[in-house]
Amino acid sequence: MSDTTTSYGTWCNRVEQYSTSPDADVADYIGGADTAWRERVERSGALDAMTADYRTAINSALPDSVSLCGDEFIGPAYPDDDEWDGYPTDEDGGLDIAACVEDISLDPIVEANDPLSLEEIGRDELKSAAKNPAKVASAAMSRLGLKPHAYVPHPDSGRPQAIYLAGQVRAALAKRPGQGKRTDLTDTDQT
To answer: Which SS3 state, helix, strand or coil, does residue 24 take?
Structure first.
């Protein structure tokens, strides 16, 4: 591989003709959602997390020698003959960037970065029937050591409201001890 790099084109001319960047694709993807949810996504920083995760997925789908920088793909000016082995190529033997990234879905990225309030965590994730599911969720997040992603004004009271990202909440909840996951027994004690 050469140390000299060159532009392989932009997001617009290599992947999505009617888009200026992956960031614009994320904004377009969530653009049709509920206005209150979109505002919470923007205020909480979840939109930045979504675009960062999307860019990470794009760069992970590309060969190590090629990366997305801003809205431009940069790679070796003189790639080795076997540089694109295992990656899709076009009719001229060049890297087919669109084919590399076509299987990346925004669904799981948006889902993992969905901003959740304590009320939503208690009600929807913990399935709490308590009078105040936010208190149940707050205690659970504290026990799990999960810190809020951000604080945004509550839509009604204007007081700071803790916001967590759904993927982090679900991962933390999946790791907690529960039925079939006793941590007080060793493998030999359970048989």
So the answer is: helix
Distance of alpha carbon 53 from alpha carbon 57, whole angstroms: 6
Does an H or E element contain 133, and which?
A: helix 133-144
What Cα–Cα distance (Å) separates residue 191 from each residue in 184, 185, 187? Answer: 14, 10, 7
- Please report the pLDDT score of residue 158 as a whole number: 87
**Within 13 Å of residue 174, how many CA atoms lie on the same side as its CB?**
6
**58-78 tens-digit pLDDT:** 999 999 999 999 999 999 999
For residue 32, what pLDDT is reported?
A: 86
The Cα-based distances of 72 to 4, 47, 79, 165 in angstroms read 16, 21, 18, 29
* pLDDT tens digit sequence for 160-189: 999 999 999 999 999 887 756 555 656 565
Place of tokens 């969905």: 114
Identify the residue whose tokens are 């504290």: 142
- Rounded Cα distance between 100 and 75, Å, is 14
The reported pLDDT for the residue numbered 13 is: 92
What is the arithmetic mean of pLDDT over 101-112? 96
Contacts with 149 (C-beta within 8 Å, 6 or more apart), sequence order: 44, 45, 46, 49, 115, 163, 164, 165, 168
